[in-house]
Amino acid sequence: MEKLQRMIDSIEYIESNLDEELAIEEIAKNAFMSKFHFQRMFSMLTGYTVSEYIRNRRITKAAQELVNSNRKIIDIALKYGYESPEAFTKAFRAIHGVTPSAAKKNSQSLKAYPKLSFQIQIKGDVEMDYKIVGKESFKVIGKSIQTSTLGGENNRKIASFWKEVNSNGFVEELEKDCGSLGILGICMEYDHKLENLTYLIAC
Description:
- The chain has 203 residues and is mostly helical.
- 49% of the residues lie in helices and 11% in strands.
- It is built from nine helices and three strands; from the N terminus they run H-H-H-H-H-H-H-E-H-H-E-E.
- It has helices at residues 2-16, 24-30, 35-46, 50-68, 73-79, 85-96, 100-105, 153-167, 170-175; strands at residues 142-148, 184-191, 196-202.
- A three-stranded antiparallel β-sheet has the order 1-3-2, covered by helices on one side.
- Strand 2 (184-191) and strand 3 form a beta hairpin.
- Helix 1 crosses helix 2 and helix 2 (24-30) crosses helix 3 (35-46).
- The protein is elongated and about 70 Å long.
- It starts with a helix and ends with a strand.
């Protein structure tokens, strides 16, 4: 419950600052998480990267303001962080399929990305026992990739990496010599400044 409330707090922070500069570090602070872990959890829970959600919400708010006020397109574009009407028009068309000026005349075809909300849904009655175990160091062997946490690249590349090693027979070969821990997915060598890491599939 506490972690869920922290995610809700982070969404509220985003919503309150859509017309301001938003840094993922500050959003993550509202969830009491590191930038790295917040981005991973946000993407797993929502299916969006943080930047995609912010972009979609800004375009939604901009569209609402466009059709419900007499403000100029350039003023709305600047309010929601676009440096020029051209950049705003390109982003607006990508989401809504029409230009801002066309939308101002006819709002019927506009899309909306609503504010996220989180709910708890309880299913089944199966208990799960778990424990955290401190282990001595151990050696692994496998295959690795380099990826970045920027823009959710790590989520896409790691998923693609697993698909590749499952389809080309690599995992089957690893399983032949697996120890008691089985096949492992390991995040390592995370560089906070460069925001990249090594991901290893190993045994």
